[in-house]
Write a structure and sequence with these properties.
Layout lengths: L34 H10 L5 H12 L13 H11 L5 E8 L4 E7 L5 E9 L2 E5 L3 E3 L8 H5 L1 E4 L2 H16 L12 E4 L9 H12 L13 E5 L3 H10 L4 E5 L5 H7 L8 H15 L3 E7 L7 H11 L4 E7 L13 H13 L3 E4 L13 H12 L11
Parallel strand pairs: 4-7, 7-8, 8-9, 9-10, 10-11, 11-12
Antiparallel strand pairs: 1-2, 2-3, 3-4, 5-6
Length: 392
């Protein structure tokens, strides 16, 4: 068992006049730049332009994040390059594993003390990384641990990409037994609302899908970007002409309940949000994923299943039902299995493709934001954090 140190942090420490400090963005990293930008950066350091391809090949092609392992670079060059293009962006606070090592969650501390989470999930035919796009979230969904925490700041392009490169390295090491040793999918379903950090998320997507050494070389069709329904940003995404999958966190088919569960619905109603999603599907030919967290006695009634079925009938859409992973002390709980099964049956009877998400990570605070919330609570109380086992 390996125990990582707990790093007490309080990213919301007020300044002398009692106002919250604005967190600064991290230093520049090579993942913030395209290959041309990296060439310009290394030449400004007095290095030959080809050093940009060398360092990019190490980072994106070989998944090497330690500059000391880049032995084809002269020692003096390494020092200059690490200072300017390879600053440490993510420091592990806790790493936890469950499901016989197939699910691995990492809690990161950023340069300003903010915390984010990422998860690696192994399956027999693929490995998926779930990454954060913001520290915290400003959407205020009451059943979500991240939403309860509020928004600290947006992540930079490199802070997003570095999560993926790290997890791709874990996959390549063979640590996820029973899965292929290559990361093949990325879902933007970690902390934050991706489309509220639109420019950086889109730049991260382009970096992840660009061929090495400019990027990681993932297929656009293997990238999923989620949203609670920021309609202007959804329509902006249509114009990008990408082939990423769009996941809409709907959680209720009627405006009365969705106004409560997803407060942004007070601005863009169900019909408008679904309209933008259907337009995305029509433009891309890609089936949209409707994310629906089943909450006991809240949104799991048969009539809501029937209403959702009518809204989606004949559309290029798939429903992904999510058994709620309740947060500690929350009034929200998962629907009983018989209720879940009836909800699925009614959707399928309406001709809507429906699956139930594989439940992962309950014993390691698997729901988005749970691990960060527990860490901040323990750090604020001055008590030791629970030990975390890292599968070797």
């Amino acid at each position: 068992m390996t125990i990582l140190p707990v790093i007490p942090t309080n990213p919301d420490t007020p300044d002398a006049v009692g106002t919250r400090r604005r967190s600064a963005m991290p230093p520049r990293h090579l993942a913030d730049l395209d290959l041309a930008g990296r060439r310009a950066a290394v030449t400004e350091l007095g290095e030959p332009a080809f050093r940009a391809k060398q360092i990019s090949t190490h980072y994106f092609g070989r998944l090497v994040r330690d500059v000391d392992a880049m032995t084809d670079l002269p020692a003096a060059s390494r020092a200059r390059l690490v200072d300017d293009l390879l600053p440490t962006l993510l420091t592990p606070v806790r790493e936890m594993a469950c499901d016989d090592g197939a699910t691995r969650k990492t809690l990161w501390k950023l340069h300003d003390g903010a915390m984010v989470e990422s998860v690696l999930m192994g399956y027999p035919d693929r490995i998926t990384a779930c990454v954060s796009s913001q520290a915290g979230c400003g959407m205020a969904c009451p059943f979500c641990a991240t939403g309860q925490a509020g928004l600290t700041r947006n992540l930079s392009v490199a802070e997003i990409v570095d999560q993926v490169v790290y997890l791709a390295g874990v996959a390549a090491s063979g640590a996820v037994t029973g899965s292929p040793p290559r990361l093949s999918r990325v879902v933007f379903m970690g902390m934050g609302e991706p489309l509220a950090n639109y420019p950086r998320v889109l730049a991260a997507v382009r970096r992840l899908t660009a061929p090495a050494p400019e990027g990681l070389g993932l297929a656009q069709r293997h990238i999923t970007v989620s949203t609670v329904g920021l309609v202007p940003a959804m329509r902006r995404l249509i114009a990008e002409e990408l082939q990423v999958t769009l996941a809409l966190s709907l959680h209720a088919p009627d405006d009365d309940l969705r106004d409560e569960l997803v407060p942004v619905n007070q601005r863009w109603k169900v019909a408008e949000v679904l309209g933008a999603a259907f337009d995305y599907a029509a433009q891309t030919g890609r089936r949209i994923s409707i994310e629906y967290a089943l909450i006991r006695d809240v949104n799991d009634q048969p009539w809501r299943a029937d209403l959702l079925g009518r809204l989606l009938h004949g559309k290029l859409a798939h429903v992904n039902l999510i058994p709620l992973n309740p947060t500690p002390g929350s009034k929200w709980d998962a629907s009983p299995k018989p209720v879940e099964r009836e909800f699925v049956a009614r959707l399928r009877a309406a001709g809507v493709a429906t699956t139930v998400r594989d439940t992962r990570g309950r014993e390691i605070d698997g729901a988005c934001g749970q691990l960060a919330a527990s860490e901040l609570t323990e750090a604020g109380a001055g008590g030791p954090a629970a030990e975390a086992e890292v599968a070797q």
